[in-house]
Amino acid sequence: MAIILTGIFLFSGVYLLRLTLWNTYGEEKIYINPTKLTYEVSYGWFKDRVREMETLNLDYYIKPHPSGEDIGVLAMRSGTTEIESVIPLKSILLEDLIINLKNLKS
Hints:
The chain is of the alpha+beta class. 37% of the residues lie in helices and 35% in strands. It contains two helices and seven strands, in the order αβββββββα. Strands 4, 5, 6 and 7 form a four-stranded antiparallel sheet that branches. A three-stranded antiparallel sheet has the order 1-2-3, with no helix packed on it. The model has no long low-confidence stretch (mean pLDDT 87).
């Protein structure tokens, strides 16, 4: 029982540390070059896995946030691969961002 409780507290501690680091040092990095898009989330001490996809048929769109307000997250899709941003923003800001990203491509 002690091993199970230790595991639960250890998992909770790491989760709370990661959450605190995200709120303090968290950043998203999206690199777009002519052939691929690279997405990385950094928590300061922790880094999430790097996700990549081709930019051949890259499409940007807004995925609604579960809160139901006028906010959403940036989603990017190429073929069957999809990457979603973790930072919710107002839909107006996302629409401007998508327009700017599409202008970069042309």
